[in-house]
Structures are given as structure tokens and as C-alpha cells.
Amino acid sequence: MLRRIITSLLALSPFMHLQAADQVLRVPNTAENRMILEQLELEHDCYGKSPEYLDFLYDKRAKNLLEQRNTFRNILLRNSKVYVEDVDALNRSLVTRDDLGKYHTLEETEASIKEYADKYPDLTILKSAGNTHENRNVWVLEISNKKTGGDKSSFLIMGSHHAREWISTEVPLALMKHLLDNYGKIDAVTKVLDESRIVIVPMVNPDGSAHSRTKQRMWRKNRRPVASSIGVDNNRNYAFKWGTTGASPNPSSDTYRGPEPMSEIENQIVVNLQKEYDFDTAVSFHSYSELVLWPWGYTGKIKSKDHQVFEKHGKAMGQILGYKPMQISGLYEASGGFDDMLYADFGVLTYTIELGKWFVPQENEIDPICEKSIQAMMYLFENAKNPLPVNQDPAYVTKGILQNVVRDLVIDDNQSRLDISLSSLSLLPDSAIQLAMDGLEMETRLRDQIFDYINRHRSFHRMQN
Ligand SMILES: [Zn+2]
After folding, report:
1. φ and ψ at 197, to 5 degrees?
2. What is the CATH number of the domain that holds 90?
3. d(C-alpha 175, C-alpha 375), whole Å
């Protein structure tokens, strides 16, 4: 993939900053580097990432900011590499035709969904889930054998929360074709559509997607004007822990969280779909970085109570894709994301898959990425039909209460809810609480803090009795 990029991983020369082209730099993913980037409001969390490195846009603004802060500049650039020499030139070289070549334009995306809905009326229901700010439909295609009833598992497959991540629409479209063209031909596909409901939203942010495809390739957000700027980052606007970490309050930022939680129609559409279909499992495709990710994103201080399930299926998909599986916060903390909300508020097993090595991979890479992603989704359809069944095991229940304590404690936003959780914990023996903390791999300082709270609750109760 992108030999152009790979061969350009050269050490940064001291004169590099004199170049005019916008570059993408790759720096070690350290707390120090993240702090510098955050202080300068240089966004790193919307480019490539791994536990080892972070990419950020090294444009004129970044160069000026770093010129003024020599210490920061020296620290940040001392181990940096150039990941992309010239962002514009790279983007221009990827798709040379006006019809976007193998990539789908907005019109082609819509036409393709309609064509497949028309072609397979017994297997599909097509609807618009709502209209965006620029009055575009958000198309939703439900795929299932309508003749089979029963309590079907529901899966949500999404693309293009972020406009410039074109490949993230190609994968859901390819999956749609695979499922519909192979029903009755491939046993595994037939079984999936007989027993499950697959709901595909190839492009949840069509306004941003249109803008990226026709006007500004690197556009990320939606297109709703807010304050003096345009656009909200749809993957920072979900309600759960909104605005607490790794999301910008600044409307001009690429990771702008929006004026309030769930302010954006695209986000409301997703929650409405969840309420309608009661999804068991969900996948949101993004690009780039070759990662399979799962909650939590808002904190790295605990794993989720369902971490083992997330890890099991995450690793299996990672193996199929050749991608690295991990909890989101292993990269950095970010709040208001799709995964955290669907999992925390609705109990959905939710993954984000970061496809490929650039937002828009070369055209000849589209098919291999789609084929592997289809395999990974088939794995998930067959193995994650009811992945998080009701579990009354006391140890698991305790982990759930602790998970809620952390939710309300890490960024203290709901004292009464916290009090209820703490009083139920205060009735348990310390050993049971400790065991649950071990299960969540809770950070030591947080354990001490929670035991302080619990002990205060206990002495308060003793005083009252
Ligand atoms: Zn994204």
C-alpha cells in the first residue's frame, strides 16, 4: 500500500520546515508528545495512530506554532519521520478521474443501494433515516430474509462518520453486495440472512462526504455551521461522557465535539436506529491505521466488564484483517465516540475498525481491503449473535457496578447516581471488590480512591445506626 508513503519515512531534516507542502509527520506516541500537540491545538487524534506512534498534519499553522515554541519543537521533532511528503500531491495521485474511479461518488452510492434494494425485494428494506443539514438522505438498508421470523440478532454496520475516510463507505457497500448476491449460493451467507438482520448505513455523514469528494478532500466533519465555523465531528458528539476528554470545544477544530451532546442529526439518527433495531453488535468503519478497536475510549483507567468478549472477537477479526486489536484508550483517550455510547448506554458489542494506511487508499487496494473486511464481518455475524447475554454472576455484577462508579467518578458528573453505586459496593466484602477491580485491571490510584469513598460510606452508615 502506498509505496509513496512508506519509502518516504525518512528522518526529518532540519530544513524540512522550509518546504511549502503540507506534510504528515509521524512522532512517537508518548505522553509528552501528546501533551505538546494538545497544548498547541495540533490535532493528532484524527490521523494515523498506534500505541507506538501518532501522525499529525505539519502544515503552515503547525510550523508557525512550533517556530514560536522552540523547546516543544525540539522535543516533538527529534524522533519524527515524514509519513506523507505532500498531502495534496498524494491525494491528487490517488484518484485521477472526476467520477472518482473505483470510489463511489454520492450519486453512485445512492444508486448502488437503490439498485440492490430493487434487485432483492425479498431480502431488503430501504429507507431514509432522516435528512441532513444540507437536505441529503441518510440511507439505511436492512438486509434479512423476510420470510424467516423469530427473534433475530441485529447487526449495525456503518461507514463515513468522517467525510475524508472514503474507504469506510466502500466496505459497507461491498458487504451489501456480498450478502445479497450470495444468498442461496453460499451456505454461510444464507444462514446469516435467515437468522439475523444486518443493517447497513454506508454513509452516515453525506454532507461532509459530498464536500470531501467534490471540494475539499481533507474535510472530516459534517457541514452544519456552528458559531463562526462549519462542522461538528460526528464521532465526538455522542452523549456518553461527551466533551470530557480528547474532543475539542473549539468550533474550528477538526475534532469539535459540537455545541451540546447529540446536537447533530447524524448522531440522532444512529441512536434512533439503535432504539428501533436493538442491535446486539455494531461496527463502525473508519480509516486509517489498520486497527480493530473497542471501548473504553473515554478512559484508560479500566477495561470494560466485557473486555474478554471484546478481546476475543476483536483478536479474531484482527487476525483475519492483519490488523492490531486493542482497547481504544490504548492509543489515547477520546470521548463522545460511537463505541462508548452504544456499549455504555445500550449494551451493544461495538467495534471501530480503522482501515488501511491512508484515508483514501490506492484504487487497487480497495478490493483486497473489502474482501478481508467482508471475511471479518462474516466471522462476526456467525460468532457474535448474542455476544453479551444477561449475566447475573455476582462477580460480573460487581464489575458492572464498579464500571459505573468509574463512569461517574473519573469525570464527576452524576453525584446521586455515584452514591447509589457506592452504597451497593459498601455492602460487599473488600475481597469481592478487589477481585472485581482486578478483573477490570483498574489503575492503582483509582482503586485507592474508590476504597476511600466506600469506607466513607460505611462509616456514615455506622454513624446513622
Ligand atoms: Zn474516522
Report:
1. -120, 120
2. 3.30.70
3. 9
Of 67, 94, 121, which marks where a domain is finished? 94
Helix (H, G, I), strand (E, B) or coil at 295: coil
CA of 161 to the centre of ligand 1 (A): 6
- Segment-wise mean pLDDT, segments of 10 residues, the chain, 465 residues: 46 52 96 93 89 95 94 95 95 88 96 98 98 98 94 97 98 98 98 98 98 96 96 97 91 95 98 98 98 96 97 98 96 94 97 97 97 98 96 96 90 81 94 97 96 91 75
Q: CA 138, CA 4: separation in Å to the nearest integer?
A: 35
- Write down the pTM of the prediction: 0.94
| Nearest CA among 386, 246, 243 for reference residue 306 | 386
Q: How far is the CA of 383 from the centre of ligand 1 (A)?
A: 26
Q: How far is the CA of 382 from the centre of ligand 1 (A)?
A: 26
- Asked if residues 168 and 213 have their Cβ atoms less than 8 Å apart, the reply is no
- CA 292 to centroid of ligand 1, rounded, Å: 13
Domain with 298 in it:
106-383
Q: Looking at the structure, do residues 131 and 224 belong to the same domain, yes or no?
A: yes
Residue 248 near residue 256, CB atoms below 8 Å: yes
| Domain boundary pick from 64, 94, 124 | 94
74 exposed, middle or buried (CB, 10 Å; 0-12, 13-18, 19+)?
Answer: exposed
Q: What is the CATH number of the domain that holds 159?
A: 3.40.630.10
Total domains present in the chain: 3
Please give the distance, rounded to the nearest whole angstrom, from the Cα atom of residue 344 to the centre of ligand 1.
20
Start-to-end Cα distance in the chain: 69
Q: How far apart are CA 194 and CA 123, in angstroms?
A: 9
